[in-house]
Amino acid sequence: MYLITRPLPKLATTSQAFANNGLTACVVALHDIQIIDHAIIELRAWLTAHPQGTLIVTSTAAAEPLIAHCAPLLSQCQLITVGKSTAQILQQAALLTIVPEQENSEGVLALAPLNDCADQRILLLKGKGGRNVIDQELLNRGARLSVIDLYQRVPLSAPVYSQTPCWSDIHGVIATSGEQAQALINKFNTQPLANFRWLTVSERIANQLRQQGIRHVNICPKANNESLIAWIQQNWE
Fold first, then answer.
1. Same structural domain for residues 84 and 96?
2. Same domain, yes or no: 49 and 140
3. What's the domain count of the chain?
C-alpha cells in the first residue's frame, strides 16, 4: 500500500488511476480547494489590459476557473503550464501551451521564453501560499510580474481517505508539493513517517523533507498520476 496526499478534488481520480494499474493506494486529502471570487475580477482585468502577455498556470485548480471564466481572453496569450494535467485542461479549450520537461517550479524557470524576460508582462496564476520560487526568480530577472492567488487550500476538519490506511503496510509515501508534504507531516506526527520511503517531484521539496529527518527521498520529475505510477512500477515494485 502507498500513502498519497492530494487535495480533495483529486482524491477519487488518483485512487482510481492507481487501482487501474494494480497498485493499492490510500489517498488522503487534508485540504479542499476554494476559489477566491474577487481574484476572477482581477484576472479578467489583467487579461483585458495585456492580451498578449505571458500567463503561467501552476495547477489544475487554477486552470479550471481560468477556462470557465476567461477562455475568450486567452487566444493571444503565451500560456505556460507547470504540468501535463494542467496543460490538458487548456488544450481541451483549443489553447496551445508550453509544458516543461521537469513539471515543477524549477522546470518552469528553465524554459527558454523565461530566460530573458526583463520588462516582459507575466501573470503568475496560483494558489494562495504556493509557488513562491517562481515569482521571486522572475522578479530577479526583471519581469513585469503580476501575481493572482486564484484559489486557496482550506484545511479539512478531518482527513478524507480513499480507504483506511494500515500504517504497517505502507511501502512508500508520495507528496507532489511542499505544502502537501508539510501538511502530511504535521497531521500524522505520531506516525513513523521518517522511516518510510518518500517520492516527490523536485530537489527543493526533497531537501525540505530531508531537513525534517526523512532520509529516503526519491524524485519523479513529473507530478501527474501516470508518471508517478510508472516511476513506482519501475523502482518500487
1. yes
2. yes
3. 2
Whether the Cβ atoms of residue 53 and residue 123 lie closer than 8 Å to each other: yes
Q: Could you tell me which residues come within 8 angstroms of residue 168 by beta carbon, excluding any fewer than 6 positions away?
A: none
What is d(CA 98, CA 84) in angstroms, rounded to the nearest whole number?
9
* Grid cell locating 9: 478534488
**Cα Rg of the chain (Å, integer):** 18
Q: Give the amino acid at 56.
A: I
pLDDT per residue as tens, the chain (237 positions): 999 999 999 999 999 999 999 999 999 999 999 999 999 999 999 999 999 999 999 999 999 999 999 999 999 999 999 988 899 999 999 999 999 988 888 899 999 999 999 999 999 999 988 767 899 999 999 999 999 999 999 999 999 999 999 899 999 999 988 888 999 999 998 788 889 999 999 898 999 999 989 999 999 988 889 999 999 999 998
Cα separation, 148 vs 61, in Å, equals 13
Grid cell at residue 231: 516511476
Q: Is the same domain home to 20 and 111?
A: no
In sequence order, which residues have a C-beta less than 8 Å from that of residue 22 and are 6 or more positions away?
none
